[in-house]
Structure formats: C-alpha cells, structure tokens
Amino acid sequence: MKTANPQRVPCPEADNVSGVVFDVQRAALRDGPGIRTTVFLKGCPLRCRWCHNPESQRFEPQTGKGGKRYGRTMTVGEIMDVAARDRAYYEASGGGITLSGGEPTAQYGFCRALLAAARANGLHTCLDTSGHLEPDKFRALAPLVDCFLFDFKAADDTAHRSLTGVSNKWILENLAWLGETGAGLRLRCPVVPGVNAGDAYFEALKAWIPRLKGLRGVDLLPYHAIGNAKYADVDMPLPQLDTHVPDDAEKQRWKEALANVGVEVTVG
Amino acid sequence: MKTDAAPLPPSTLPDLLNNGAFFEREFPLRFDYELAFTRRYAEVERLEPCAREAAMLAFQFPRIFQGVRPGDRLAGRICYPKTAVGPQAVGVGYSCPIRELNRDLAQGRFSETTAQKARSLVDFWQSRRTQAKVRAAFAPEVSALLPSDEWAWESGESFPLYRIAGLQFSHDRLLELGLPGLRAWVRAQAPAHAGDFSNGLLGALDVLDETLRFYARETLEASSLASDAADRAAFGRIAADLTALRAQAPRSLSQACQLVWLYGLLSGIWNYGRLDDELGPFLQADLKNGVLTEAGALELLQSWFRLMAAYDNRFDNRVMLGGRGRKHPEAADQFALLAMEAVRRNRLNQPQLSLRFYAGQNPALYAKALDVLGQGVTFPILYNDDVVVRDVMRAHNVDEETALDWLPYGCGETMLRNRSVATPNAIINLPEVLNRVLDAEARAPGAYPAFESLFAAYASRVEALLRAGARSQRTQYDTVAREAPLLFASLLYDDCVARGKTLLAGGARYLSGTNETYGNITASDALAALNKLVYQENKYTLAEVVRALRADFAGCEGLRADLLAAPKYGNDDPEADTVAVRVHDQVCRAAARAASPAGLDHYLVVIINNWANTLLGRFTGATADGRRRGESFSNANNPTSGMDRCGVTAFLNSLLKLDTSLHAGSVQNMKFSRTMFTRDRSRLEALLSAYWTRGGSQAMITVVSRDDLEAAMREPEKWGHLLVRVGGFSMRFVDLDRDVQLDILKRTLNE
To answer: Three-state SS string across B557-616, please?
Structure first.
C-alpha cells in the first residue's frame, strides 16, 4: 500500500513504530466478534508442543526451504492503513482489529503502539494472548483492549512447563487480575486429546470460569494437524505427540463437560 | 388476419416436430415442419411487414406448442423448430440455423432424403433470413471492424450478435383488458393508423385467440385421458380458464398467470418483468375469496416455474420481485414470498428469480431471500434499488419516476419496462483488443515509449470498435423493423399503438443498445502488470513481454511469474485498482459517446457474464496478467479467479471503486460457504449490509463447499442437484463443460 488511506486517523506517537508481522488477514471471522482484521505478530516465548504456526516462533523474518517469506517489518501506520479500509464492515458487524501471533505482547512496544493506534481510529480491539507477560506490563495494556482472547493451556504449572516450555505463574496471575477487573474476555482453549486435555483440564477450566467477571465465552479449539507441513519448510523437527484429531462425538463430550457453566461455549 | 392453414391435430405434433428443445444439441432428422413454414413464407413474402408477420405467426402458433403433461397446472409448453419468426427464439426475425445445417450436411449426419430437405432450407434461407439481411446492411466501415459473426468459434476483437432481446412488458393492459378488450382497443384506434399496422395487431390477437382455443380443446382431452385424479381436475380447470379468457379479462390468479404465460410464449420475450406487482392483487383476492388456498397458489407457481425451466432460456427467464414503484406493494409482497418459496422447493436453475430491495421495503422479503439463497439455489439475485435507481437515472438519462420501472434483462442489462429496447447486439473482447495493440510493438519496436501511449492506443481501438457496435445496433433495429416488426411486443409497449408505429420503427420511446464487454479485469490486470514491470521498474522491455505472450510463455516462466506477482484487482490494492477503474471508465464512457452518432437514445456497456469469459478465452492468446493462451478471462467485474487473496472485504472494496452509474449493469458473483449462511449468518448479513450501504448494486450468491464441487466433478451422477451461478445465469454444475467447472472451482470461496 503506497498511498496513505484517507480513512485512517493519524496517531503520531504510534504510527512510526515498527515490528515484525507474518500476516495481516482481512475478513477474519474466528478471532473475536464480527468481521475483523487480524494482525499476526511474529515471535513467541512459548514452545507449545502442538503449535501449528511454527513459522511464528522466531522473532526475525525468515525464508522457508520452499522460498516462502515468513515475516516482514511493518510500521503501525502501514498496518492501520490496511485495517482502516474495512471500517464499514467492522461497524456493520461489531468487528474490529485483533492482534495475534506468535505472542503479540512479546513485541511489547509494537503491540502497545498498534493498540493505541487502533484506539485512536475508534476500532474495537482484541488481543489474542497466552498471557505470558510480566503482570505490570500486562496491566498497562488492558485499557487499550476491548476483549482479551486469553489462552487456557494447562492449570498445573508442572504440566504447563512441560507442554509449553514456560511457567504459568504470570499467566494465571494475569488471568486472575482480568477476572477481578471485569475486563472483556473469552477463554481460548486448545484441546489436544491426551496431551493437555483430560478430565482434570475441564475441571480446572470449570473452576476458573466463575472467577472471571467479564467472561463472554469459552472457545474450545480442537487439535488439528493442518500446520504440520510447515515444520519441514522452516527446518524444525515435527514434535511427536501422542494424540489424535478428535471426532464430532468427542467434541460433543467436551461441550457436555462444560454444560451449565453460564457462558457460551463454542467448539471448532 | 385469419390464416388458411388449420392447426394440425395435437396428437401428431410431437412426431411432426421431432426437434428437441431449443438448447438441445441433437439435430432433428426430419424437416417437414420447416419446409411447410418455408412454403408459407414464400407465399406471404411480398406482403407488408405486419401482414407478413401475422401470417407467419398464424402458421407457427399453435403448431409449435406442446400438450400439457402430468403435474402441469398451466398450459404452455413450446418446442422450437429450426425455422421460426420472433425476436430471438431460433435467431432474429425470420431465422434458420444455416451454419449448423451446413455442418451437419458436411458431416453426413442426414439420410439422403433429409439431406435434400436440409439443402433446400439452406438455399432458401441463406440470404432471406433476417440475420443475413442485417449483416448485408452493415456499412462497409462497420463490417471492416466487425468482420466475423463466429464469436464462439473464432478469435476476434468484437462481434455483432443477432437478436432482439432487451425488452420487457408491463402486463397491466393485457390483464386489465384481456383479449376482447385488446381487440376493441386496437379497433377503436385503427382509423388513425396505417392499415398494415392495425391489421397486423388484430392478426396477432387472432393468433392469441386461436392458441387459447387450441389449448382449451387440448387440455379438455388431456383431462379425460389423465390417470391421476389431481391432473384430471387441474386440466379441466385449465380448459375452463382458457375458454373464459377468450371472452373476458382474467378474473383469477390462475387465469392471469395463464394469459401472461401464453402471451409471453407468443411474443418470444423471455423475461417476464414485475410479476409480483401485476399478479399480487389476483393472489390476494383469490385467497380472500376462498378461490385458492395458499398451498394451491404455491402449486400453481411451482408448476409455472417448472414450465419456465422446461422452456430453458437459461440466460433469461427473469422474474422480478420487490422494488420501488410498485402499485400494490402489500399484495406484491405476498406474491413475492410465495414465489421465493416456489423456487426454493423447485430447486431448478430457472426462472432467474430476482429481488429488488430498498430501505423501507418489508424486511421479510430480504430475509426470505437470504434463507432461500442459504439453501444453495442461487436465487434470488439481489438488486439494491437504492443504488440501481440512481444508476439508471444517470446512465439512461431519465427522471426518477421513469427509472423506477427499470428491469434487468436476462444477464442483468438494465432497461426501462415497456419503454426501452436495449438489446445487447455486440460483444467486445478487451484482452484481444489489448493483445492486437501490443502486436504493433512486435512489428515496430518502440511503438509505445510510455504507458500513456500504450493506453491511448488501446483506448482508441476500443472506442472505434464500440462506435461500430453502436452503428451495427441501429442497422439491426432498422432491418428487423422492416422484416419482422414484432407485433406482440408492439401491442403492449407504451407509445406504439398511440403513435401507430411498430416497436423498432418509431414505436418504442427509447431505442437503446448495449455492448457486452468481456475480460475487463484480465485487460486491466495486464495493463497494470505492464505498467509496473515495463514502464516503472524497467525489468523487461515491452518487446520481451510481447514475445513471451506470443510464445504462450514457453521458456519465459520467470517473466510469467513476475506478471502473476504484479498487483491484481480484487485485493484493494491501489495500483491494480487504479488501472481497473481507468479501463472501466474508458470503456463505459466511450460506449455512451457512441450512442448519438449511431442514432440511438443510449448505448451502454454491460459487464454481465454468461460463460463468454471462458468461450472467448479459448481463442485468445496469452495475456500480460500472466494468463496462458486458452484460459478463462476474469468474470465480469470479479477478480480473475483465484487472484483475490486478501479476503472478501478487500474484494468488495476493489469492486466498489468501479462506478456503477456509467453502464447498464454489472454482475457480481460471490461464492460463500454454507457455514457463512448458518453459523456466521449475522456476519454475512453485516458484510452484505456494508456492501449495499457503500454502493453495492447487485450480488449473485452461490452457496457451496469446495468439497461438493470436487465431488461433483468426480461423481457427476450423484450431484445433479448442485446449482452454481456461472455468470449471468445458473446451471447444474454437472452440466457444465470441464473448463467452466474448473473456472468456478478456482473462484475464491469466502468462508
């Protein structure tokens, strides 16, 4: 996009901040309410064993073996130029902009500048995050976010370390804080049968739900193997997981496990 | 005017005709009917135009009608032979498919007896058919620019099309007066008219009368023979309706539908206008008076729509619902809801049910439309009256009240009901025009030192071809007016009877014309790629690109990859979209400028699509957008299939940059997943709502999954129910040629 979009409101303190992005997906329907533009920020401190975006893990742009480029440096202004083009669709649908990753908060200054620019443009914001961030930094982002899409991967710290490579101490502290403040929130739950998800997982999830005052829904995200081919392209070994792609009956059982929790539960 | 040729007994009709329906590919093996038609023509050839047409209509009808079949709730099935008179059924005016006959003769497909008959048909009609007379009447400079008529079989820049399409009736006068009233009305005005005109109209009404009589007798007989009790009762009711219609104006919904349908078949007009407003009051009265139940009305409409599908004018068969300017909105809404339900239940590719909607219209109509579309029937086609009425005012230069009576013709060409004739009588292949302009570079390298000089050469050629198209259009109208004045249309069209003139000889208020443009986006993407790679980045010389195009990119895969990677329309990309807007504005404005010099009230581009994007693509060499020789073009104003990669919002933003008030219609195919209509229904509604609010004029929506399409290609026998929007028409996916199937598969599925 060479010409500036006249629909964009300039945000001088943010527009020139740059970061590494591996995709800007327009007309996204699964990353928060309405029709959205999802910005995928590259780089992640976690190494989830089921990760299906291995190209999102490293922070710097890289080239796959097949020649595909993963990631490029963009300024906040450039991204907002694209995002503001779909303002009419956000307004009609209650949509807006979503920051995802990787872990979007890991490029902290860039992430914050993007949220600030979105605010300046009057766009609804979602932050799709693992929650793995120092709590004071996390709290500083909260006023810029309309709805958190907060991952719930494992309640037990030992399990969390083994599944993702990091402790869930910050994560649970941040989640508890969001719950108390009543911040808008959806729980995003990767469900990897036999790996992170069993009875204990659903029990822990049910225990957390009443603590989250602003909770708007729980999204169960069944394991799939669609991203596996990308491991080879970015020259990473495919993690060996003792799991399977769940069938409809299994998904229905998950939904039943969360019956009567008082919020919307979606699967898939 | 009565004819001396008595109708043949109905039982012999199918055998005598033995012709198959209009679109059937198998050619008949006998030409007895055609030779009899030809003999009759020879007898009346020297009569005045109206008398001649009345005589030939009286020969043609009711002979080519077919009897009712089980399940029919209206009479009116037609089987077109290979010679005919009419606006477009077999060809324009008096027609005979010379090319197909010659082909079949050459291939030895006939027995010697049949071959002799075929040869005599060819000899007689070669120069007498109206198409030949139109072609012969072209000015030499027009012929030089439009040298061939074989658009579907040859490479070329622009071709004439022979037909009178682009007219639709208001049936109000027909329904109000009925047959006896129309006769009295014509007679009352006859003293002011030339005798040929009035006698011709009365002759046409005699044909209507004879048709009613024929079908009354035929359905009565069918009733006595029917094995099914419901058929027996229905055929008896049809016979009674037909008899009543000979003596009076219609008094019930079934009589009104019957009269409209038979009149439509007799006129040869394939699109039926605003039936909801015209027939809604009959429906309302029948329901109120207990003449009909809602179930009975639905059965009637389903049957009528099946008859339309059997007529099989897949590019036409329009029925319009909704919209501003209806006289009976409440009754019309009731009819419209029933019509949508009938289409949902029938699940056929015809009629092309369409809905005009506007802010303030009963929201139940739009909601029902989305429900029906969500079930994958591709109908109704949606038109945003808040935009289209404004566009029609601008493009046709008419006031708002006149514009309210706009209707789309078969593929979506806008015209003014009962007032304008706006036939698409030419097509232009924009990628071929560009390629031939580029050929100058091969002959004289350096012909286009700057992008502007290339664009100017392209634009100038487009303009010359459009001017030729407009002149050929006027020639066609004038020739048809002399040959076959179209009596049935002249009877209902505003101004004709008052002026005492037939439709094309000064009767119709507006003599308009349209030119179908193809490959608009292929051409603009090609120009955008040349602009970037040749003129901005100097990565290739123009001569290098032209050489690669001529070689169909053999040995130039890197160059082709760069062309493909250049900005493409459909991604909300300013570079590509700016060129698309320029190509669009140029072709639209050049066409409009061509009207007046050609003696037309309007001449407008239509960016509709049948499958000509595929047919023309077959004969067009590689193009500078990276398309290989023979591949399909972009479809109407849609991105080249598969080239819109930034999501549906970006596609819609690109689309909305093209001014819809410069032309007579453009069609937008959108393919959505079933999930969008179920789980994401609210998002879909928001998406469409934003599109309409921002100036979207039209949408044709196919709901399908990629898996379904692929499965249908593997196992066509299991997927006969799968309907897709091809361009300006819908088809059973399994009936399409493989390259058309692949083109549809490649189009972006929004999910």
So the answer is: HHHHHHHHHCCCCCCCCHHHHHHHHHHHHHHHHHHHHHHHHHCCCEEEEEECCCCHHHHH
